[in-house]
């Protein structure tokens, strides 16, 4: 299922899983200017002659390319629907920016799926181009993936990434869902810290990286956006604010299925509980399977 | 679902999951003479007036009480069958034995679910009594668990633990299954290292801690033992040897369902792939649900 005649990838590990195969790879990333890691799950039956739909997974702060795959239960449902998964790392590694390892919410593990424009971050912190262009193109050249049926799903910081990328390029990302996303980073502490560092003090440059502001600026997704949010999430009121995204969606007419779940928090225990519905949501759009 | 009037437990974290609740606790263990950690998943609907069956989960080398729960996908199936889960840590922590942190396969993270008899290990390395007596009794006093419907499941070193405890006390452990268990530790490197350290050089004392030798000595389990084993497991030929357990089971008439899976390795990716069958196996015995 991997065809890499040019030797672009280093295979770090591969494991049979749920009838398919999950692999961990590294490569020299042009966007990041560094070695980058990602993971791919290929379901049984995929081949270059029979390419399968794919969902990209964007994890949250502190995670790696392994986290979403091992902790969310997503693979068993992707396998059931015949859908592949691509999981990115959450930041460049080893960029050498002073202080990049000092905080969990900035620098290493906290790339926010955008291209930094401010020195010294702009040299390597280019996860926007990596996730939006390089990783889909690379994986669709080397694996049996159908780029015309590509969805995106994320958690927390990764939920922010999924919403922003899908709203900016709906022709590229045909389906989108999120768990506990940061929907309005421009006005919450995590986002203000990251954006002021990566993008600078001029807040007008932040709007292209904020899902709520994108909606208000006229960016829409042609499908229903599925969002699950726990009501016992410790970050709900200070960092996440799905109510603001819902209000914006209502005002512009964006179809949104925002589900609030009493008692659930921000963890992968929460994601495990509702992941089946998310894969079904993507499958309905990407494969035509009834939701 | 937790009733702890005596304040025996410290609650480290609790999370809603799959309609139920997974909690992480610590307590002063008598068996270990140390603070010990464990985790409990309680499905929806359990109460002290409506106690539920329980499966104890024993993880492998290097793991903690969290590993099996977060990586195996087990919770969603336990929730579906209305079964609780209890997950132990894999060794005492902070016993202070010289060298206990030096190797992944001895000491910390490698308690082998037995009581050491050799100094200085015997002071705290008493995971046999902990898993066999203290933890079931503690959790069945404080949680809505039905101790008359108690099963045990493990992986690798934990598969060894599950088989040994179930064969020695089938009246206590009503159902048993394992992933890639160490079935004959007395003759493989992991077991020889652990047993010679914890039990000493007299191999006659090892027999009570070896599932294959227990079978040969007449210990049987009244139910079918379910074992899944990957044929691409890197430890299959040197450490695991399920063929030896199968031969012993055949010779003594122990019912065994040993399933070999081409391409699968020793990881939680393998466990994820077959965990549903294991929970169904236990449910059929513990709840009477058809398998």
Question: What would you call the structural class of chain A?
Answer: alpha/beta
Radius of gyration of chain A: 18 Å
- CATH architecture descriptor text of chain A: 3-Layer(aba) Sandwich
Q: Which band does the percent of strand residues of chain A land in?
A: 15-25%
Structure description:
The structure is a homodimer of 291-residue chains. The first copy, chain A, is of the alpha/beta class. Chain A contains nine helices and nine strands. Chain A has helices at 67-71, 74-81, 127-142, 157-168, 189-198, 211-216, 236-240, 242-252, 268-286, and strands at residues 9-17, 20-29, 34-42, 52-58, 84-88, 145-155, 175-179, 225-230, 256-261. Chain A is globular and about 45 Å long. The mean pLDDT of chain A is 97. The A-B interface holds A 15-19, 22, 70-71, 73, 75-76, 230, 232, 261, 263-265, 267-270, 272-273 and B 15-19, 22, 70-71, 73, 75-76, 230, 232, 261, 263-265, 267-270, 272-273.
